[in-house]
Amino acid sequence: MRTFKITVGYDGTDFAGWQIQPRQTTIQGMLERALVKLTGERVPVTGSGRTDSGVHALAQVASFQTPNWRASAAELGRAMNVHLPATIVVLHCADAPDNFHAIRDAIGKRYRYQLQLGGIRSVFDFRYRWRVKGVTHLEAIEEACGRFVGTKDFASFQGAGSPRRTTIRTIKACEFIRELPSDMPLGLHGERISIEIESDGFLYNMVRNIVGTLVEIGKGKQSPTWVDEVFVAKDRDAAGPTAPPQGLFLKRVDYPDSCGVSF
Amino acid sequence: MRTFKITVGYDGTDFAGWQIQPRQTTIQGMLERALVKLTGERVPVTGSGRTDSGVHALAQVASFQTPNWRASAAELGRAMNVHLPATIVVLHCADAPDNFHAIRDAIGKRYRYQLQLGGIRSVFDFRYRWRVKGVTHLEAIEEACGRFVGTKDFASFQGAGSPRRTTIRTIKACEFIRELPSDMPLGLHGERISIEIESDGFLYNMVRNIVGTLVEIGKGKQSPTWVDEVFVAKDRDAAGPTAPPQGLFLKRVDYPDSCGVSF
Lengths: 263, 263
Hints:
By secondary structure, chain A is α+β, with helices and mostly antiparallel strands. Chain A has five helices and ten strands; from the N terminus they run βαββαβββαβββααβ.
């Protein structure tokens, strides 16, 4: 038996999310379909976490085990790519220690959320960005971002349906990024910003709920200090709405050096 | 009768090009379908030029005439966008002089061609970039670009099927652009470069044939001075192969001030 770690990129637009589901096209399903062709057996693939329909990955990580591959791990990665659609790619494939497990061993993740502030819809960005109107208080968003950093109870930012043992998480970074203007005449598609959040773990919809909360602040409906009130409430209804999926990218998954895997 | 000038962006991936064709989904066809719904009549739309299947536009220009629109031009643009798919957008709609004609009046265009040099395929760029292997002589490409500038006979760079009265054109700019690296770990998707070409007019497939020629030079198969030999040959077979459509973007169309239109 060999254990592999793969790093996978995908455009989530046309998939029903990561997780295998009957009669749905999913990322996990496509990866397992490629592995059946290459190994002759069903090989369950474990992702570092699920992503929802429409959510993208710059570098998702997954692990699996099979005795039926004799060539190098790099060759397995290339062979998988032959059997994957253009919207899924294995970026890296490496042998991993027998006990490596993509969910259990993950110690941190970074997500990126992309927004377009007002302007006309873009034919190139609509799959990758949330277009919101009326967001003009950018300094307020930047200030509010700082209020998410630290070890806190994120109960107010947990989506329904996937409760966890504890809702306490440590956010290491919550960065506000003004992106370069697009190639278009200035202002046509509005300003482009991103929020990047790094944490030791994320609750269900946590990034999208944080972004929805930041957008309320950016619209001037709430001040940055409102974030502190939302934390205290420990109530999902206290926070802003859930931002839509297409702006969200899983950017990185981190493992400890002791796992013997790196990317 | 009112004459309108529209500026249109589109992702050409899923269209059979600009021009209306029976039983095919085209950009012109979708624009005319929107205008039928809004004006109650068939309104022929004239583009500044056709683009092939898979070719994109940051700002294509088109003109049309209709007596059946009473509100402002800006409102017509917004109304058209309601009836267009997410991959086509009217960026600007303006009243134009009665005699304005998007093909006849155009005095110049700028195209952009995007490449990825080697590396793994990207799930986000495959629709918008030509991935080529073995291109390492970037200074040679840059030097060769300069040899296209000026008033020359581009017969060797004219694709078959759409012969023009004269093959002499004036290229005002042929720019080699090193793009910013992507967000991914360095080198994974290779370097990203673009070629931007501005001319008073383009022959069929001219940009794609110039880019295919530049790629031969970038691979070290030919030196930059080869460009001069290709010009002298006045023979399509003397130049490099035609670059694929997905890297090509129509970036801008220029009209003289005397047309009374601007964007």
